[in-house]
Amino acid sequence: MITIGNYFEDKEGRLCVVEAVSKYPEDTIIAAKDGPLTTLPTKPIKLTTDWLKRFDFSGRKDFMWISRLDNFAVQIVNGKVYAAFLDKGGVIYRSVVHLEYVHDLQNAYQVASGESLKLVK
Asked: Is 1 inside any structural domain?
């Protein structure tokens, strides 16, 4: 699902932020990129450990990456990233949602926290 505030790349690989989404014509993304709003041919950004660091997650390559929330982290299993929900002791309670792209992480974080996930680095 694409929501306002999600990060995408334009066809030149520049970072864009979704400002609006229109269903007509089909799933048109309107994003800002260093200037006025524009309709862009965009592509999702693959979620990598470098992106986790840019969002201030900390962790190890093939284990758990902790966010600023007490109850949300991501877990990397066999190269795939999953949203991980933690119990009060910081132990993974559930890790079932596969996060393939940066916007998937942003959306999962927003569901868990009620806040938008922003770049810090």
From this structure: no
CA pair distance 87, 70, nearest whole angstrom? 9
**The two three-digit tokens of residue 117, written as one number:** 């996930």
Can you give the residue range of the structural domain that contains 17? 7-39
Beta bridge partners of 58: 66
Per-residue pLDDT of 12-62, as tens digits, reads: 777 888 777 666 655 555 655 555 555 555 678 999 989 999 998 887 666
Strand order in the sheet with 80-86: 58-59, 64-66, 72-77, 80-86, 92-98
14: left (phi over 0), alpha (psi -120 to 50) or beta: beta
Is residue 98 in some structural domain? yes
What pLDDT does residue 2 have? 74
Shared-domain flag, residues 55 and 103: yes
